[in-house]
């Protein structure tokens, strides 16, 4: 019963492990999917962060370039203003010289031609200066417009720099989201590794349970084979005991009929009887012959009683083996000595033709059954005559040799 219970428990554990395995597989698949989603989200955040950082670097570079251009334009404006002031001063100086020359014309006594030449020369020089002044004015206007444009761009870049803080905040937020995604990915990987370890342990446990189940199934088959062998042996012993009991009952009936027939015969012709050595001997009176037959009947009755007891014991053992299959081999071990002393009788040979124990079996007998043999008095063990007080050994199953206490045979050798 304990082996059957252990086998059932192993089957339940195996079924539970098999039921648990699909759940572990589903959990592993779900964790793998979550890990893939988190990995995709992390890659997206990393890409967005890289793009924002590149945009910030580009804006910073553009701002630096615009600042350098603004400084260059400012320097050019200052330089052109200085040149304009120089040209204006040169023109004023030339005008003053012209006025001085006109004023000194009278004092120098220059002719009109000379004066006209100098005026023409000064006019040409003045025109040249005016052209330079106009060009300088145009360049100043151009530089002023460029300066205003650069200033506007510079202000726009300043405004964009004010939005850099918001970009930095977005970058920081994206960085935190990226860190959180990495942390979640690590947690998912750890949980996935834990789930895989649990799945591997469950697989190992499942394999051990399968091996244990196979071993228990093999033990159960061996136990059933032993049980069948035991039941077959008990049934065989029971059949042998029943056959012997039937034979003994038939012999008792025959002896009773012969004794009754002999009691009505003439006591002058007493029947012959064999002694323990097999030589015939003659009884002296009818009462002696009747006592001899009576002793033989009692002997056979004792054998019948012993066979009945053995038959009842075999039936009880057979019922116990059928009703309690798990108890076979355990209860018998506890009371092995008691059962051996009560039912430890060896197999004895019996010849139906010679009607003698312990010599040979009926199949090995060389004599044919005759009426004379059947009417003869049965032979007992050697050197033993008819007696009412006979010793009997329960271990050996033999009369007139020794008692059970004096037996030297092993009581475990039972049939």
UniProtKB/TrEMBL annotation:
Keyword set includes Aminoacyl-tRNA synthetase: no
Region spans: Disordered: 252-287
Subcellular location: Cytoplasm, Cytoskeleton
Alphabetized UniProt keyword annotations: Coiled coil, Cytoplasm, Cytoskeleton, Microtubule
Chain segments annotated as transmembrane: none
Domain CLIP1 zinc knuckle: 348-365, 390-407
The name this protein goes by in its record: CAP GLY domain containing linker protein 1
Upper lineage: Eukaryota, Metazoa, Spiralia, Lophotrochozoa, Platyhelminthes
Species whose genome carries this gene: Echinococcus granulosus (Hydatid tapeworm)
InterPro entries the UniProt entry points to: CLIP1_ZNF
Primary localisation category: cytoplasm
A GO cellular component annotation in the UniProt record: microtubule
